[in-house]
Amino acid sequence: MQEAMIKRAAQLLADGTVNRVMGWKRGEFVYDTTPAVFTTADELEKEFVCDDFTQANLSKYLVKESRKEGKILAFLKPCDTYSFNQLVKEHRIIRENVYVIGIPGGPKLDIEKIKAKGITGILSVENENYTLKIETLYGTETMPFYEAVSGKCSSCKSRKHVAYDELIGEDGEVLEPNRFDMVEKLENMTSQERYDFWRGELSKCIRCNACRNVCPACTCENCVFDNPKSGIDQKAAADSFEENMFHIIRAFHVAGRCTDCGECSRVCPQNIPLHLLNRKFIKDINELYGEYQAGADTTSKAPLNDYRADDCEPSVVHERGVE
Amino acid sequence: MLKISADRLNDLFNRIASEQTLYIPVDHEPNTAEYRKYEDGMKLSESLNTVRSAKDFFFPQTENLAEFKVEGKNIEVKDIREESGDFVVFGVRACDARSFSILDKVFLSEPVDSFYKNRRDHGTIITMACTRPAETCFCTAFGIDPTTPEGDVAVFSDGKDYFFLDCTEKGKKFIESVSDMLEDGDTSELEAVREKTRGIMKKLPLAGLKTDSFGGDKLNELFNSPKWAELSESCLGCGTCTFVCPTCQCYDIRDFNTGNGIRRFRCWDSCMYSDFTKMAHGNPRISQLERFRQRFMHKLVYFPANNDGEFGCVGCGRCLSRCPVSMNIVKVMKTLEVK
Question: Which residues of A touch B61 (CB under 8 A)?
């Protein structure tokens, strides 16, 4: 796969279709890949990587990249194409300045899940028939591939590309989602249990803003939380109320626009399952306004931006809130 | 050397906790160790290091500095600081122990930061020698020996026993205070364990990392390097690296309107943020390139320039494992080094 991608990218650079390529760059170790822009076939040959660890969603970078001179080639996994479409819909990505090659998605691996098994000093990770063979400074370790699959891939919503100019590999199908299981579990808790769950999680927040900055739905030029003129800019939460509100306000702001790409939880250094807040909104929108998948297309009206006579009444909040 | 057997470690913890506040690293979730206030039965983490560094004990993420009460035309300024109680931090690694001496250079030089000093005076640091370094470790590049950590007391383990070595007056006093629980032990096996760890350190993937290309005298060539553009292009501008870093020490001071007065607090700041050092005319670092460059120039050039050549990094590897896009000081050093 990686070889075919490098070859095709080099061709498109050579024939002038694009002048840059957005992909991932090899790191110091087997797992620490970084999103990067390549401009020559030589760079691609030396540093381009696409493997089990290239998890990062490249779509948000295209907001900036599509405003530069020339056209950029972007390799997008199925989930990334939803973010891409949503950003095109919101006029954040200039579509004609991007050449999208759809590539198969995961399941991608999360090195943290390997390290959580106590495996350290990792030198290489090989997938042999869905058993990971991990060479370390302390000897060879093995673990089942599926136990190392990243959180975002373990509840994959779709293997279908919803935006592309060409594909490498086969296109897949929209999947039957198991992604609301944990949301249901939370819904079935008592309000006190749910409160305790979220207090426990959100109190771990160190306000590094990684979730916000990686989020393809968060593309405000100046976030209210960074803007001294907003009156609510803050680098530290004054109390537990503010600690909760940053994430809850953010979830409200991306409601109906969040494609459930899972980047927020992937990047959280404190392992807060932030995607569950967004999934709750997605599930509610599906139940109250009919099935809707943000980013599935670039033309439909989003439920929260669209008025219909049979929309649910505001009283639904009270009705659903009663235990 | 004085020692205690591994199965009696919690007895020692209980004893320390009965006299002062004790913090130890615990694994409450896999691979996310953190310091917690010790309670009976808590188990010492098996992780190499905590996700957040130990700097919080002396330089907390937020702290209140003063309160102002306004009545009519009078403003009353209240000094709200409280004297810290004595506390012990157990299980600090060599990298984090060195970070304290780096923070000391900032907070204890004139004018002394009395908030920081107060906690430093009351805290006893018990470090623990490393036996299983990770691939992300590179402390030796900064002259740190993880088998001989600094601190008030250094603790070494050979798997069966924990050995205690005092390194400061404070440490000596601490060991005396618990000496009835310790006994003389044979360190021959311990030496073998330390030797083995030193052997692993040499085999680490980052063992060859060189610092020759950096330092206070390399300001212009590094500042003007064209490579910052590609290095910073993927940076999200979040504060993860700065907040998990044991040596990042920048803070902001803000006023919080309590409704009937003002509470002045300080909180960690990050040079990666768009409003960092924002002044009347704006942020002097206009794009992520300048902000990204600032962080690494601070650690590799500005800090050594002002502190007798000492770098502002201890090689703990936290930024390597936590950066959302896996961009970090090692990649910066390898890209900028003069070969």
Answer: 206, 236
List CB contacts (< 8 A) between A33 and chain B. Answer: 326
Smallest Cα distance from B266 to chain A, Å:
9
CA B276/CA A95 separation, integer angstroms: 33
> Is residue A14 domain-shared with residue A100, that is, in the same domain?
yes
Q: Taking Cα atoms as reference points, which of A83, A81, A77 lies closest to residue A107?
A: A77
A165/A46 same-domain check: yes
Taking only the tens place, the pLDDT of each residue in B71-96 is: 888 999 999 988 999 999 999 999 99
Q: What domain count does chain A have?
A: 3
DSSP characters over A194-263: HHHHHHHHHTT-----HHHHH-TT---SS-TTT-GGGS---SS-SSHHHHHHHHHHHHHHHTTT-----H
Higher-confidence position of B250 and B258: B250
d(CA A68, CA A22) in angstroms, rounded, equals 13
A81-110 pLDDT tens trace: 999 999 999 999 999 999 999 999 989 999
Mutate which of B45, B138, B238 to test chain A, going by most A C-beta atoms within 10 A? B238
Q: Is the pLDDT of residue A232 over 90?
A: no
Give residue A125's domain range. 111-148
Residue A56 to residue B324, Cβ atoms within 8 A: yes
